[in-house]
Design brief:
This protein has 209 residues and is mostly helical. 57% of the residues lie in helices and 0% in strands. Helix 3 (50-73) runs antiparallel to helix 7 (169-193).
């Protein structure tokens, strides 16, 4: 292992340390505060904005799938830094985004949480309650909105950090930062459209890591 590579024991402790912060966010009213900053009784003015829909929603989703396909092809035809990875690591790099995406999709399919634009205070029919309660009872809306799925177009690639960590630690850190920043950006875009609360995005990032 490279001397400047982080210890494999570090990541689990970081994730555990983040849980109290996520729990405090869930207990706070910051989700609704941020939602009210983006919308009101008439809905969310930026819901159909071209930058948020065409570029950061449709475009980002297409780019994520294209990148995932490129990682699959690179298993057999590696390029750049992937040439230095053994076959098993290339498989791991390609498979991780699919596994993460499938896991979040499964959670969303079981969730009764509705999107902010479905809440009564934003012109919809649902009532606000904890997304954890929504696994037990529906909130009166369409549900299936927790955790944030679109943010996974960025977050799902965090696994590259663990793939490159030992052999190419600098690339691993850049890869991780890029995946986290992309996921956060896409989550914020959906929040301003009224498609998600910030907690949905934060939990997606935690699940991916």
């Amino acid at each position: 292992m490279y001397k400047n590579a982080p210890s494999p024991r570090t990541a689990p402790w970081v994730l555990l340390a983040a849980l109290p912060a996520l729990a405090l966010w869930d207990r706070s009213s910051l989700d609704l505060t941020l939602a009210h900053a983006a919308g009101g009784a008439a809905g969310f003015p930026l819901r159909e904005h071209w930058l948020l829909t065409t570029v950061l929603h449709q475009g980002a989703r297409a780019a994520a799938w294209a990148f995932a396909l490129a990682l699959v092809l690179a298993i057999w035809w590696p390029v750049g830094a992937m040439r230095r990875l053994p076959f098993a690591r290339r498989v791991q790099l390609a498979a991780t985004p699919m596994v993460i995406t499938a896991l979040v999709g499964l959670l969303k399919s079981q969730s009764g949480t509705s999107c902010p634009w479905s809440l009564a205070e934003f012109g919809g029919m649902a009532h606000y309650q904890s997304h954890w309660l929504d696994f037990l009872r529906a909130d009166g809306g369409r549900g299936h909105c927790f955790p944030a799925g679109h943010a996974m177009a960025g977050f799902s690639f965090v696994g590259g950090y663990w793939v490159f960590r030992d052999s190419q630690p600098q690339l691993a850190r850049i890869w991780l930062a890029a995946a986290l920043c992309a996921g956060l950006l896409l989550g914020l875009a959906q929040q301003w459209r009224g498609a998600h609360f910030m907690s949905h995005t934060l939990w997606s990032g935690w699940i991916a890591c």
